[in-house]
Specification:
mainly alpha, 0% strand
Length: 126
């Protein structure tokens, strides 16, 4: 392998830093690498996503998913019917918003929570 002048300088500086022990006792030293599964991200966007993630930016889809899961958690313990209905409406709105952002086929969309509730209401009426 032939190195350019710049690559030789970089390699030499890395070797000098190793000799001085600058890479000793780094956080995570001796632990297995935690490689991210980025197969779902198009190859041409992976570097951009990694830079944004390292800068603390979270894509809107992920923010929405977090809010959806938090709302679902709130719904499981809620007793008040009127508040539960409002929260359920909010949940369905968030799911609709997420599905619109994704631009994926309908079969891949996150389902809304109308059907089960309507079925239960219809079954309970005389």
């Amino acid at each position: 392998m032939i190195l350019t002048g710049f690559e030789k300088i970089v390699e030499e500086r890395i070797l000098q830093a190793q000799r001085r022990g600058e890479f000793d006792n780094l956080p995570g030293s001796g632990l297995p690498l935690e490689l991210e599964d980025d197969r779902h991200i198009p190859e041409d966007l992976r570097l951009s996503y990694k830079i944004l993630k390292n800068a603390g930016y979270i894509p809107p889809e992920i923010e929405l998913k977090k809010e959806i899961f938090q709302t679902q958690d709130l719904l499981t313990d809620m007793e008040d019917t009127s508040r539960k209905y409002r929260l359920l409406s909010r949940l369905n709105y968030l799911i609709l918003k997420l599905n619109c952002l994704r631009k994926s086929p309908v079969t891949m969309e996150m389902p809304q929570h109308y059907a089960a509730i309507l079925t239960r209401r219809m079954d309970s009426k005389p």
